[in-house]
Amino acid sequence: MAGKFSFRPLQPILEKITGWFTVDSNQISLILSKLRDRLPTTEVLLVGKPQTGKSSVVRSLTGISAAAVGQGFRPHTDHTQRYTYPTTDLPLLVFTDTVGLGESQVETTAVTQELEAELASSLQLDQQSAAKILLLTVKISDFATASLHQIVSALRQAHPEVPCLMAVTCLHEVYPSGVADHPSYPPDYPDVQRAFQAIQAQFSGLIDRAVLVDFTLESDGYDPVFYGLEAFVEALSDLLPEAEARMLNQLLSQGETADQVGNLYREAGRRYILPFAVMAGTLAAVPLPFATMPVLTALQTTMVGLLGRLYGQTITPSQAGGVVSAIAGGFFAQAIGQQLIKFIPILGSVVAASWATAYTWALGEAACVYFGDLMGGKKPDPQQIKQVMQKSFQEAQARFKQAASDRKETENQQ
């Protein structure tokens, strides 16, 4: 009876805390909206026939595997698909790809109308942070380009302010017989140069720049895989505003794409990991062993679910619980110990609150690494995640302990 009596006054507190973190799902939208306003975004409209290297362009700029790129495109309209990198909520690069493009006049007209509508709608929204560019991909051996010419002509006439870059692809298809690898860039083979000049002449007056590229798979045996990437990025950067060009080069510099994006998302994630950590400490301070564990677990599971959404992973509460178990298994025994320590009056609750705050922070940091790996198309590394969580836990304990000490000192001075 005594136990039940002592627990009843806690019910309103637990319900209130539960309400805090169940409504926090809306906060991520506000955070992402503010970040979007500050971050430059580049929208690339890919125009080209199938098998002309459009997906390879996406791979070259994002570092994502071919399989991940293929799965990442989603239907946008009847004749276009969209791929956002790294996620839909916080994109740095948005690729709109044309599908079903052939020589049929009906298809050509439909694609043109949809791309014109795409440009018109986005420009009407006055998206100052989103630069737009047309990227025309043409296979070097293909001279049947009437439909492409019609589409680009219509788009440039309707939106002359949107620059157009032409990438002439699949260069190895016209290499001299016996050549098994790429030459030094740019290729000086006569057949390549003649074809390149002829294609440029076909689109004279419609394109701002043209570049030779050959983006292949590792299994194709050509080295480098992204032949002409530097020239391609340079041409793309020249046609983009300064902020977008700088962001693009940061993503590609020294192969640090994953680190650049990871740091960006970690910064966003920490903005609401902190409130969850503070709430966890408040909840853990309740001086009843095990009484608040279910709510504390639910709070932490909710935080992980929201972090998943930040990284473009939509997961159910049960799946979020599975992620918590996967990345924090070594801490469960300690969690039980922190509940038992509450049997020590006053001191036990203080220690438990400090531990829960640091643990929740570390859990959030580890979840960012876990979801960051998934976003990059990699399998999460359990050892790396364990190391990140241990380090984050120790740093958080020291940081929150210092904050509590400073607060107490300030109260004493007052």
Fold topology:
Elements: H1 2-7, H2 10-23, H3 27-38, E1 41-48, H4 54-62, H5 66-72, E2 74-77, E3 80-86, E4 91-98, H6 105-124, E5 130-139, H7 146-158, E6 164-169, H8 190-202, E7 209-212, E8 214-215, E9 226-227, H9 229-239, H10 242-252, H11 257-284, H12 293-310, H13 317-328, H14 332-340, H15 347-375, H16 382-413
Parallel strand pairs: 1-4, 1-5, 5-6, 6-7
Antiparallel strand pairs: 2-3, 3-4, 8-9
Helix pairs in contact: 2-12, 6-7, 9-10, 11-12, 11-15, 12-13, 12-15, 13-15, 14-15, 15-16
CATH fold group of the largest domain? Rossmann fold
* Main β-sheet, spatial strand arrangement: 2-3-4-1-5-6-7
- Series of H and E elements: HHHEHHEEEHEHEHEEEHHHHHHHH
Shape: elongated
Radius of gyration: 27 Å
Amino- and carboxy-terminal Cα gap: 42 Å
What's the CATH H-level superfamily name of the largest domain? P-loop containing nucleotide triphosphate hydrolases
Can you count the helices?
16
β-sheet strand percentage? 5-15%
Domain module count: 2
Short description:
This protein has 414 residues and is of the alpha/beta class. The chain contains 16 helices and nine strands. It folds into two domains: 10-32 and 259-413, no CATH class; 41-240, Rossmann fold (3-Layer(aba) Sandwich).
Structural description of this entry:
This protein has 414 residues and is of the alpha/beta class. The chain has two domains: 178 residues, no CATH class; 200 residues, Rossmann fold. The strands form two sheets. A seven-stranded mixed beta sheet has the order 2-3-4-1-5-6-7, sandwiched between helices. The protein has a two-stranded antiparallel ribbon with strand order 8-9. A hairpin with a 2-residue loop joins strand 2 and strand 3. Helix 9 packs antiparallel against helix 10 and helix 11 runs antiparallel to helix 15.
